[in-house]
Automatic annotation (TrEMBL):
Protein known as: Propionyl-CoA synthetase
Entry GO MF terms: propionate-CoA ligase activity
Species, as recorded: Aquicoccus porphyridii
Residue intervals of the AMP-dependent synthetase/ligase domain: 70-444
Transmembrane segments: none
């Protein structure tokens, strides 16, 4: 069957399609049906089945004869260390860690926050939670204490599992002071913390609250897998929205198992036993789905890579890892290849390595610009597939279903809707638009298994963010179009989310930080085009009356403030002081026009603008910091 047949088969019988896919998963009690309608546009999948994530990701492979196969390869060019962990070893390590958590009172449904660098223990912590039915919430290491505190308050974890440090090139990021700071600020306090001590930095433990991972695991009683309902949350992952309060995306156990397992062959075209590598971070959805879960569920070897595309030690790192571990499918963000291309435009490093094991390269996380795709294709001689998805969906909305049929690549398009997604382009009035017309990208409800059923403790926000604008649809927050052949094109966000080096960030969240500076009366943050990171944030500050300190001082202070409050990952390095912000007559800041000016393209003076002269001031200010050329 080709893609069209498979897509049509899903559309004709979604229930049958997903029940069949569910057979590839081990159930302690099989679900009686796939879709459960909860009413009022809420849906769940496989709710009455009983299953366990860790069993499916680890134990069943040991039982099925893969015990000696590498489950995880840790490759850390930053430390020079490499480690292979077989499925049998992983089972033992995870069972013991789960035993530690259980002995300390963690029960089914309890939340556990995980704040870890790219070490195998991060994946082990996630799996250990799943083993006993605890719900994990991983927080990316590049976030500062305040962001961690916001997540602790929302998820209310009974425990926090943290590494003693992360390693950035040339810099040890001490996690413990950040963790202690977060617990100090947070209203909610965890009962205990489990600290994984790394050689590069041994953290001071707080007696009675903090426990040493290695010591605890050494004497732990292993815990067995606890079957949970298909609709039991596997995890909460916070993602940026329009405000500084992140959205807690929930993932259910059954749907995640079924959907992710389906993607490994049909999208990434790997068979059990093959090596799969997603060069991302466990703190992002790509890391959840394609470092921790999908490869292991499907019986693949997953690479946990602690390094950067360049500088660790050079622009050949990706190719070295691919050769050395015989990676078959490789997934990263376009920004990573832009970084490699910048350092090694002629692919000199690449020539030193043998990429014959590699079948294809997959890109996601941000728009894949045609230049980057073409360069990567030409240099590697491998097909490069863009695919589009979000934290909310957990897996591909639109991609190239290579395991079913490799469709022709059209540059600028992530290809076609995957089975499970009825993608439509809607006009402002909510009506579907014809091919070639630009509109809001929405998915007809229900969303497929493995996608978000709701937001953690925030059903109203879930409805407002995703369901209420276009009744009967999930609103993706992206705008784009579909061509005559059904190929989708993603053009822009419709909200205040920006994408910096593949990291999803909220300009609204940054504005909240700028506005908290005592000298700032009003502010705006926009995402401007950046040749390496895709987008970069730029802040505009209007100062309070009577403030006459040097502008550079205030700019330096707000940059520091964003780094302290949100974290280095915000990559907030540029701000300008202006007298006024361009607004509509009703007072709405004209951010889109500011972006057009910054990017140096054509821009029109909006008909609704209050005072067009302000746009010239904005252009001048942007030129002063290297934009609007
Ligand atoms: N812990 C602590 N700090 C972190 C961090 C982490 N896990 N990850 C990033 N940071 C820091 C960086 O050190 C940097 O700090 P600096 O301002 O002191 O230099 C800052 O956050 C910004 O990071 P980033 O935007 O990633 O820029 P970079 O210059 O370090 O690297 C790339 C640029 C392109 C090499 C890098 O972004 C990359 O490898 N991207 C791959 C894409 C990816 O992983 N996407 C995730 C979704 S698929
Ligand atoms: P995240 O939730 O961090 O994965 O970010 C999701 C958002 O990143 C999407 O809503 C898009 O705006 C953007 N995005 C992800 N993948 C792509 C892609 N392949 N092409 C264009 N934009 C993408």
């Amino acid at each position: 069957m080709g893609y069209n047949d498979v897509y049509a088969a899903w559309k004709a019988d979604p229930e049958g399609f997903w029940m069949e896919a569910a057979q590839a998963i081990d159930w302690d009690k099989p679900p009686s049906k796939a879709l459960f309608e909860k009413g009022n546009d809420l849906y769940e999948w496989f709710s009455d089945g009983m299953c366990n994530t860790c069993w499916n990701a680890v134990d069943r492979h040991v039982a099925g004869g893969r015990g000696a196969q590498a489950a995880i390869i840790h490759d850390s060019p930053i430390t020079g260390r490499k480690e292979e962990i077989t499925f049998a070893e992983l089972q033992d390590r995870v069972a013991r860690l789960a035993g530690v958590l259980r002995a300390k009172g963690i029960e089914k449904g309890d939340r556990v926050v995980i704040y870890m660098p790219m070490v195998p223990q991060a994946v082990e912590a996630m799996l250990a939670c799943g083993r006993i039915g605890a719900i994990h919430s991983v927080v990316f290491g590049g976030f500062a204490a305040n962001e961690l505190a916001v997540r602790i308050n929302d998820a209310q974890p009974k425990a926090i599992i943290a590494g003693s440090c992360g390693l950035e090139p040339g810099r040890v990021v001490k996690y413990k002071p950040l963790l202690d700071g977060a617990i100090e600020i947070a209203r909610h306090k965890p009962e205990f913390c489990l600290i994984f001590q790394r050689e590069e930095e041994r953290a001071e433990l707080v007696p009675g609250r903090d426990f040493d991972w290695a010591e605890e695991v050494a004497t732990a009683e292993p815990a067995e897998c606890l079957p949970v309902e298909g609709n039991h949350p596997s995890y909460i992952l916070y993602t940026s929205g329009t405000t500084g309060q992140p959205k807690g995306v929930i993932r259910h156990t059954g749907g995640q198992l079924v959907a992710l397992n389906w993607t490994m062959k049909n999208i990434y075209n790997v068979d059990p036993g093959d090596v799969f590598w997603a060069a991302s971070d466990v703190g992002w959805v790509v890391g959840h789905s394609y470092i921790a879960y999908a490869p292991l569920i499907h019986g693949n070897t997953s690479i946990v890579f602690e390094g950067k595309p360049v500088g660790t030690p050079d622009a050949g790192t990706f190719w070295r890892v691919i050769e050395e571990h015989k990676v078959r499918s490789f997934f990263t963000a376009p920004t990573a290849f832009r970084a490699v291309k910048r350092e090694d435009p002629k692919g000199e490093f690449l020539k030193k390595y043998d990429l014959s094991a590699l079948n294809a390269i997959y890109l996601a996380g941000e728009r894949a610009d045609p230049d980057t795709i073409i360069w990567t294709q030409e240099m590697t001689g491998k097909p490069v597939y863009d695919h589009w998805w979000q934290t909310e969906t957990g897996w591909t909305i639109a991609g190239n279903p290579v395991g079913i049929e490799a469709l022709p690549v059209k540059l600028g398009s992530p290809t076609v809707a995957m089975p499970g997604y009825d993608v439509q382009i809607l006009g402002d009035d909510g009506h579907p638009l014809p091919p070639g017309e630009l509109g809001a990208i929405a998915v007809k409800l229900p969303l497929p298994p493995g996608t978000l059923p709701n937001l953690w403790n925030a059903e109203d926000r879930f409805r407002k963010s995703y369901l209420s604008h276009f009744p009967g649809y999930y609103e993706t927050g992206d705008a784009g179009m579909i061509d005559e052949d059904g190929y989708l094109y993603i053009m822009a966000r419709t909200d205040d989310v920006i994408n910096v080096a593949g990291h999803r960030l909220s300009t609204g969240g940054m504005e909240e930080v700028l506005a908290s500076h005592p000298d700032v009366a009003e502010c705006a943050v926009i995402g401007v085009a950046d040749p390496l990171k895709g987008q970069a944030p730029v802040g505009f500050l209007c100062l309070s009356k009577g403030v006459n300190r040097p502008h550079e001082e205030i700019v330096a202070e707000v940059i520091k403030l964003v780094r302290e409050r949100i974290g280095p990952v915000a990559a907030f390095k540029t701000a300008v002081v202006v007298d006024r912000l361009p607004k509509t007559r009703s007072g709405k800041i004209l951010r889109a026009t500011m972006v057009s000016i910054a990017d140096g393209g054509e821009w029109k003076v909006p008909a609704t603008i209050d005072d067009p002269a302000i746009l010239d001031e904005i252009r001048d200010a942007l030129q002063g910091v290297g934009y609007a050329k």
